[in-house]
Amino acid sequence: MEFQLKHTFPATEKTGTVIVAASGSELSPAARALDEASGGHLARALKTAGFEGKPGQTQTLYTLPGIAAEQVLVVGTGERRDLDSRSLVRAAHAATRALAKGPRKAVSFLAELEVPGLSQEDRISDIVRASVEGSYRFEDFKSRKTGDKGLNQLTLAVAEKAAIPGLKKSLAWGQAVATGVNRARDLGNLPPNICHPVYVAEQAKALGKLHDKALDVKVLGEKDMKKLGMGAFLAVSQGSEQEGQLVVIEYKGGKKSAAPVVLVGKGVTFDTGGISLKPGAGMDEMKFDMCGAAAVLGVMTALAESGLPINVVGVLACAENMPSGRATRPGDIVTTMSGQTVEILNTDAEGRLVLCDALTYIGRYKPAVVIDIATLTGACVVALGKVVSGLFTPNDELAAALIDAGQRSGDRTWRMPVLPDYQELLDSPFADMANISSGGPNGGAITAACFLQRFTRDYNWAHLDIAGVAWLSGAQKGGTGRPVPLLMQYLKSRAQA
Predict the structure, then answer these.
(1) Catalytic residues, which ones?
(2) Does pTM surpass 0.85?
(3) CATH classification of the domain holding 66
(4) Of 60, 141, 259, 467, which one has the greatest count of Cβ atoms within 10 A?
């Protein structure tokens, strides 16, 4: 989609669609201007249609008198007192979806909305990001594709012509983040017979070649991991015909002396549960168990696109968890790269085994901050539903920064405890620890985080459990690209500090 910035007026704009907003029953300034130009036709048409201005609600009005555009699209943002970044993003997303089969060009006046805490630059970025995400389709495996029939050019109206040059960076930032989000969605949506660990590694290498001045990519195979003593990682991948891969992507946008932020993504490209086999119903969605790694690749894509001045290392810990004659058994004991031993009581608690060795490996980068991202536990979905990510960190400052980034981006997270009291639940009579809690399913997301914490004592660490937000089920089944927006906002805030 092509984006432009323009100083213009809603009634005289000759385009396919003019997009305006309504907060409940209150029209936005641009909507009021259209209503006046049409002699009150806009307000009467909305009333007749039963339009209430609810969040994400849309209403298309055709051939209004006194209006130059072919049609007017009114988008609801909810009550004005509730207006925030999420409602703005939802409105822009809904507008793009509503125009999926409409005119190819549109002019949006959504950036005029006054949103508490958001500058005009922020609003421009949010609208661009949401518009690109809203136009997303995954049709790679359909024999009949709908094709690109929606918007291909969106002009964002701004109040002052002199402000346009300064807003171009905001437009580019929104595009970069959206590109990263949709890259993550693509990987998550691919079928597991195609998107296996080696495929993910190949995609990372291709990204490195595309942005060879910004990114350095290296891949460790199972022989490399065996030499490093990654017994926990290999315990997961050994049951599969597909070789496990540890992908390392370095983005050096900051000063050479600056310690990097390291992002570690769980990339279990398909999770059967191994010998502790999952129930068959819904197992197809276990292709999304690599969405943590997909998010990291999405972030690295967005960083290369945006040129953000910061150093970041992205690690994709990719394996396939399959039952076979070579698969790890419940009761096996493995030695991790850190030297700590783990009794595997359940082979379906595999994500933490893949991650723990990756978290030890990245210590060589002497990171300023480490954030791991993983579809780690169903327990987190039980606790938080599919609304927010679970955030675990013992560091209050890091927690506050990530929560703030989530609020600002609309990709929210909620802090959960990682208290020492939970650690004893991981005790094993035969090894240094077990890979699941002795207390059963209670506090499962917390004990999983506590397991990871044992491998992160040497640096500042946070864990994001995205099991509830990484994908949608049902009619809207597919990857969401979360938490790319949250992570990009965090990195941007850190780079600007």
Answers:
(1) 278, 352
(2) yes
(3) 3.40.220.10
(4) 467
